[in-house]
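Here is the promised in-class demo. Please do not try to memorize the tokens; focus on the logic of going from shape to residues.
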């Protein structure tokens, strides 16, 4: 298991665990980051991570991406 921030761009991964406080977990869940869901890093730009999740592109901060384990 590793955080989303060290994922290779363009490779598909599965969300294994989401850490953080309950409100952070709920926010990520609302964005589509649910355990068992497929994710793929598109790019990392200036501290933000652009991720493809559930056929959508989502930009999250590096700190948020650290809480998503793949």
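The designed amino acids, position by position:
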């Amino acid at each position: 298991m590793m955080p989303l921030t060290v994922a290779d761009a363009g490779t598909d991964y599965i969300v294994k665990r989401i850490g953080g406080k309950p409100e952070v977990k709920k926010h990520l869940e609302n964005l589509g980051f649910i355990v068992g869901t497929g994710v793929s890093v598109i790019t990392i730009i200036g501290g933000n991570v652009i991720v493809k999740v559930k056929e959508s592109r989502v930009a999250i901060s590096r700190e948020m991406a650290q809480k998503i384990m793949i």
